[in-house]
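Pipeline run #58 for the internal structure catalog. This entry was flagged by the ingest filter as a single-chain record with no existing model, so it goes straight to prediction. Upstream metadata was stripped on purpose; only the residue string is passed forward. Reviewer on rotation: M.T. Logging verbosity set to normal.
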Amino acid sequence: MKPLTGSTTTTDQAPADPAATDDMLATQPIGYWSGLARTAVTRQLRDAMARIDVTQPQYWVLNRVNGALPAPAREEVVAQLTPLADGPHEIARVVDQLLHRGWLSTDDRGRLRLTQAGEAARARLRQLVTEQRAVVHEGIGDEEYVAALKVLRRMVANVERAERHRAP
């Protein structure tokens, strides 16, 4: 395949190798390593949340509703968070769970709001997530982290650009 305009290297792709040495990392597949990172980080965070009987999607909903002006309707929250979820119905179920738990309420227009208990849970979860982030980021400075995210963001843009060029 011909490289897209603006590419700077054409390094051959090697098979995924968890034991690859630093000098071989440029040949490693991003899909393997980004997938491995996603799985490990998500598992670690979800395990920590499970120990306090909360799920990651519940945290997403609490954050989305928190301080939103105007307060969001259920449909807005579902539409915004479904792309992150494990399925098309997960966020709607989470909203139901949080309403049942008393962490969310609805006003007379059907807008979602955090209750005092919901805000307390969101604050506890934020602290937990901050602690888990420290574990994940151990030995990684902010500059290094930002550089990694910029590379990933550029890769996503490259793939999206290639898909637009390939579209009929």
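catalog note: The two ends are 18 Å apart (CA to CA).
catalog note: The first helix runs from residue 30 to 50.
status: ready for reviewer M.T.
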